[in-house]
Design a protein that fits this description.
amino-acid biosynthesis (chains A, B); 5-stranded parallel sheet; alpha/beta; homodimer; 430 residues; 17 helices; Rossmann fold; EC 1.1.1.23 (chains A, B)
C-alpha cells in the first residue's frame, strides 16, 4: 500500500502514476488466442474436443458429455438450503425489477413537414454468456448477465462454462435455473468464445457474447468484436472509497478488502481528509486481512495496488481525484454524499452514504454489477438490457414531404460527387 | 451481378454464399497499424510529423501547419453558394431535431423496501471525429457524427483529417462550422486515431473516437477499443431493395446504384416477385451506369457484388431473406411496407414506400446515416447520442433498507467464498 498526501510536493506526479498504472496482465495472449480462434473456426467440434481435453482435462465424447441439462440445474436449485435459495431468488427478483425499467421506448412520429420518422428497439436473436469455472464461478455473475438478456427478450440464451475434470459449481447451476438459461455447454476459454461467435457442429452461433473471464477469454472477445457484439473489455476490479473521519475504520477497511480479495491485480483506494482515520483504517486492513480465507489474494492486492490519499479539503479536492480515477465502484461515506455525487462525472456505480457498502451492489441491490474498469467509466456504462438490443431507424415520406426535403438531398449529393444518389432523388421529383 | 430465383434447386446454397460473403479488405493491415500506434504512443508529435510527411505529403512545421482554424471554417461556410448553404443548414437542423429526442432520461426512485436506486447519464468529456480526406470527404458525414456529440453535451469535439499535399474540402470545413467543432488537426490515418487515443504533445486525448475511414483507420479503432470508446466496426455500405413490379424500374435502378457508386466493395441487392420487372431493372442499371461520373466504381460493385433475387411469394419469402441479410439500408417499395416492417428483425435503417429513396436518409431526413454493415444489424445500432454518453448507476440504503437485503448479500458472499464481502455487510448489520 502506498500513502499519498495532496500537500506533498510530489503528489501530482505520484497520483498520475496511480491513475496511469496498468494492472491488466500484459502477457502475450493475443497470438495464442488468434490461433485458437482460427482452429475453432475451421475445426469446429473437433477443435473443442481437443482444447477441452488439454485445458480442462475433460473428455467430450457422447452428446451427453457436452451439455449440462435443465434437469440438472433444477436439481441443483432444489438441493440448495433455504437461506441460499431465498437469497438467490431475492437477488434475481431485484435485478429483474431494476432492469425491466431500462427497456427503451420505440419512437414513431410525423414531423412538421409530414415526414414519418422513428426507431424500433428489438432484442438480438441469441446471446452467449461466458461463466468461468473454478475460483471465479459466481452465481451472482450469472444472474447479472442472464437476467438483462431475458428482460431484453432474447429468445436463445446460451451459457458456456469450463468444467475442469468434469466439475461444475452447483450454485451456478441453481442460478441458471432461476434465470432460465436455454443451453449450457461444457466448454471454456477462448475456444468457447470462438464457438459462440462462429458456431460449430453442435453449437449454433450467437449475436452477442457477455460475461467475465480470464485474459484469454477477454482477448477472444476483443478479437471477435465486430463478428459479434460484446459487453465490454473488462479488467481487474477496483473500489474507491471516499470517507471522512466519522466512519468506523473497521467498516471502511472491510469495504476496501471486499475488492482486494477478488484478485491480486484488484485495486482499493481510500480518499480521506483525516490523517488519523487513514492510519486507523490501514491498521484495521492489516488485522482483517489476517482473518480472511482469501488473505493471500487480498494481501497481494493491497500491498501492490492499495492506495490511501489524504486530502486537505474533501469538498475542494476529492471531485478532481474521483474523476481522474473514474473508478468501477465509488463509495461516498460522508455526511453529504448527494452533493459530492453532483460533482462526479465518471464512475461505474456510486454507493451513497455509510450504510451502502459496495458488496450489497454485488448481489442484491438491483443495478448491474458488471461495470467498466480501468478508467473506462469515462466512456462506457455498466451492463444493461441495451447490450442485448439494437435499434432500427425508419423513414417514410409521401410526395409532399419528399418534395420538401428531396431537393436539398440532391444538392448535397451533387456536391459530394455522388450522381447516382442525386438521380434516385431527382427521378422522383419530376 | 448474379441473379437467383427461390425456385431454383440450388437457391439455398447460393443465397448462403451471398449472406456469408466477406467484402471487407483482407489485407494485412493489423501489423502495420500496430506499429504505427506504438510509434505514435511513444513518439507523439514527432511521429505525427513523420507519418504525415510520408502518407499525406504534407509538412507539419509551425503551429499553424497543424490546425485548420474556426475562422477558416467560417470563411468556407460564407463562400458557399446559397443552395448548398441552405441544404447543409436544413440537413443540420433535421439531424439535430431527430437526435435531441434520443437523449436518455435519468432514473432516481425509491423502491418498496426503501432502497434508493437510479442511474445518471452524462456525456463523455471529449470526442474525436475522423474525417477522411480525398474522395470520401463528405460534409454529410461530418454533420451525422458531430451533431449527435454536440446534442449529447460533449464539451470538446475534435476533428482529425488528412490534408493530402495541404488540400482540404471546403464543404467539409463549412459543415464543421455549422456543427461547431472545437479543434481540427491536419493528421489522418491510423496515426491520427492513435493521437486521439493516447494524446500527443499538441493533441489532448479524447474518450470516444467515431467516424468513417479506410481499412487502416478502421483497424486502428478496433485495436484501440477499450482504450477509447468507438462507434462501431464499419465495412462497405450496402442496400437491400424490396420492390414489386408496380415500381418504375428506373427509380429502383438508381436506388441500387446509389450504394454501388460508393465503393467497389459496396453491395446492392434487389428482391422482387416479378421476374419481368427484375429484367427491366437490370437493363436500366446498365444504362444508368454508363451515364455516371462514378461509373467505374459502380460498375465494379454491381458486377462483383450485385444480386437480384426473384421470389415466388413476397409476403411469405421476403422476411426470412431480409433477416438473413440484415442489411445496412432496407428499402420497402411495396404496397404495404408497414406489414413487411413488422416482420423485419434485423436492419440498420428502413425506408418505407415508393417515395423514400435511401439517399434522402443519407442527407436530410434526420436519422443517422452511420449504420451497421456486414450483417452487424443483428446486434448493433446506428450512431446516436448514446455513443457519446455513459451511465452511472447509484444505490443509497438506510438502516431499514440495508437491514432488509443485507443478510441475503452476506449469505451469497459466503457461498461464493468471498469473506471480506460478507464482513463489510455483517459489520453494519450488528
Amino acid at each position: 500500500m502506498q500513502q499519498l498526501d495532496t500537500t506533498q510536493p510530489n503528489f501530482a506526479r505520484d497520483f498520475t502514476r496511480v491513475v496511469e498504472e496498468r494492472r491488466d496482465a500484459d502477457s502475450d495472449v493475443a497470438g495464442v488466442v488468434q490461433d485458437i480462434l482460427r482452429t475453432v473456426r475451421t475445426g469446429k467440434d473437433d477443435a473443442l474436443v481437443k482444447y477441452t481435453q488439454r485445458f480442462d482435462g475433460y473428455s467430450l465424447i457422447d452428446d451427453a458429455d457436452w451439455v449440462i441439462t435443465a434437469e440438472r440445474c433444477k436439481e441443483a436449485f432444489d438441493a440448495l438450503d433455504a437461506e441460499q435459495r431465498d437469497a438467490l431468488q431475492l437477488a434475481a427478483n431485484r435485478i429483474r425489477s431494476y432492469h425491466e425499467a431500462q427497456l427503451p421506448k420505440n419512437r414513431d412520429y410525423t414531423d412538421a413537414i409530414g415526414a414519418r420518422l422513428g426507431a424500433i428497439w428489438r432484442p438480438v436473436d441469441a446471446a452467449g454468456l461466458y461463466v468461468p469455472g473454478g475460483r471465479a464461478a459466481y452465481p451472482s455473475s450469472l444472474l447479472m448477465n442472464a437476467i438483462p438478456a431475458r428482460v431484453a427478450g432474447v429468445e436463445r440464451l446460451v451459457v458456456v462454462t469450463p468444467t475442469p475434470k468434469g466439475n461444475s459449481n452447483p450454485l451456478v447451476l441453481a442460478a441458471a435455473h432461476i434465470a432460465g438459461v436455454d443451453e449450457i455447454w461444457r466448454v471454456g476459454g477462448a475456444q468457447a468464445v470462438g464457438a459462440l461467435a462462429y458456431g460449430t457442429d453442435r453449437i449454433k452461433p450467437v449475436d452477442v457474447v457477455v460475461g467475465p473471464g480470464n485474459a484469454y477469454v477477454a482477448e477472444a472477445k476483443r478479437q471477435l468484436y465486430g463478428v459479434i457484439g460484446i459487453d465490454m473489455v473488462a479488467g481487474p476490479s477496483e473500489i474507491l472509497v471516499v470517507a471522512d473521519g466519522k466512519n468506523d475504520p473497521d467498516w471502511i477497511a472491510a469495504d476496501l478488502l471486499s475488492q482486494a480479495e477478488h484478485d491480486p491485480t484488484s485495486q482499493s483506494i481510500l480518499i480521506t481528509d483525516d490523517a488519523g482515520f487513514a492510519a486507523l483504517v490501514a491498521d484495521r486492513v492489516d488485522v482483517q486481512i489476517s482473518q480472511l480465507a482469501t488473505q493471500k489474494t487480498a494481501r497481494q492486492s493491497w500491498d501492490d495496488h492499495g492506495v490511501i490519499i489524504v486530502v486537505n479539503d474533501m469538498e475542494a479536492e476529492a471531485p478532481d481525484l474521483i474523476n481522474a480515477l473514474a473508478a468501477e465502484h465509488l463509495e461516498l461515506a460522508i455526511d453529504d454524499p448527494e452533493a459530492m455525487m453532483g460533482k462526479v462525472r465518471h464512475a461505474g456505480s456510486i454507493f451513497l452514504g455509510r450504510m451502502t457498502p459496495e458488496a450489497v451492489g454485488d448481489y442484491v441491490a438491483g443495478p448491474n454489477h458488471v461495470l467498466p474498469t480501468g478508467r473506462r467509466a469515462r466512456f462506457s456504462s455498466g451492463l444493461s438490457v441495451l447490450d442485448f438490443m439494437k435499434r432500427t431507424s425508419f423513414i417514410q415520406l409521401d410526395e409532399a414531404s419528399f418534395g420538401a426535403i428531396g431537393p436539398a438531398a440532391a444538392t448535397l449529393a451533387h456536391a459530394e460527387g455522388l450522381p447516382a444518389h442525386a438521380k434516385s432523388v431527382e427521378l422522383r421529383l419530376k
